[in-house]
Write a structure and sequence with these properties.
By secondary structure, this protein is mostly helical. The chain is 79% helix and 2% strand. The chain contains 9 helices and 2 strands. It has a two-stranded antiparallel sheet with strand order 1-2. Strand 1 and strand 2 form a beta hairpin. Helix 2 packs antiparallel against helix 3, helix 2 packs across helix 4 and helix 4 packs antiparallel against helix 6. The longest helix is centred in the C-terminal third of the chain and has 35 residues. The model has no long low-confidence stretch (mean pLDDT 87).
Length: 249
């Protein structure tokens, strides 16, 4: 058991050293930002539809997962997703500590409303347990669905070109985003914010469409990154380590 644990830790260390830092940094920032901005709802002209500002960043999280899945495989992308979810919770803890430190936010200086505004901002950054729990569950489940569906769809294509990359990323992103939005809406928005089931479904579908459009717009960049990684043999040490483990079995 201890030997397997050490192997897993070593594998993760090699993987982290193999993934170019800018993609990993974008992934971490996207996950933290989308969960923070999920606290702000978007005003819409119809009452059967509800969205939050988390959609501004969530497409970026799925784009980076698709890039890692394409190059390193679904297992590696899922391992990184779990690690990033843990990092997000750690930062949420730091935000919570910050919200409890006595002090005044600069934006709270509105005559007569200082305490109310300061309290609201503290609670926005401090987070609420059910929002953190719901967002964490939704992200982890959707990450697994996105990564493995992306990989399985990719197996159907013999050619490694933009068309195969586009189809695997668009379909997996649509599935992952819908599941992410739907789980969060049902676990959090429905029970704690009073959303109707119709609102949860329309939010999941609309959010999926918006985020899929963003994925489509930026997919050429993702494909270019994957091709560049392949050309430059990015992650060769990780692949050698995995091949070595497979040969020992």
């Amino acid at each position: 058991m201890l030997k397997k644990l050490n192997q897993k830790i070593e594998e993760l260390k090699i993987l982290l050293r193999s993934i170019p830092s800018f993609v990993l940094a974008l992934f971490v920032l996207a996950v933290i930002s989308m969960n923070l901005l999920a606290n702000k709802s978007i005003n819409l002209p119809v009452d059967w539809l509800a969205l939050d500002c988390g959609i501004i960043f969530s497409w970026l999280a799925f784009l980076t997962m698709d890039i890692m899945t394409k190059h390193f495989g679904p297992k590696a992308a899922t391992q990184i997703s779990i690690l990033v979810a843990a990092i997000n919770l750690f930062f949420c803890f730091l935000f919570f500590i910050s919200s409890k430190i006595p002090g005044v936010w600069g934006e709270s200086y509105v005559e007569g409303s200082e305490d109310i505004i300061n309290y609201a901002i503290n609670h926005t950054f401090g987070g609420i347990w059910y929002v953190l729990l719901g967002s964490s569950i939704a992200f982890l489940v959707s990450a697994v669905v996105n990564n493995f569906s992306n990989w399985m769809i990719g197996k159907l294509f013999k050619k490694d070109n933009f068309l195969s990359y586009a189809i695997r990323t668009y379909v997996s992103t649509a599935l992952g985003q819908f599941i992410d939005n739907m789980i969060f809406a049902l676990l959090v928005s429905h029970f704690f914010f009073g959303w109707t089931v119709i609102q949860c479904i329309t939010c999941a579908i609309t959010g999926m469409v918006v985020e899929l459009i963003c994925e489509i717009i930026f997919s050429p960049i993702g494909y270019h990154i994957c091709q560049d990684w392949k050309k430059c043999h990015v992650g060769e040490k990780y692949f050698e380590y995995i091949r070595g483990k497979d040969n020992l079995r």
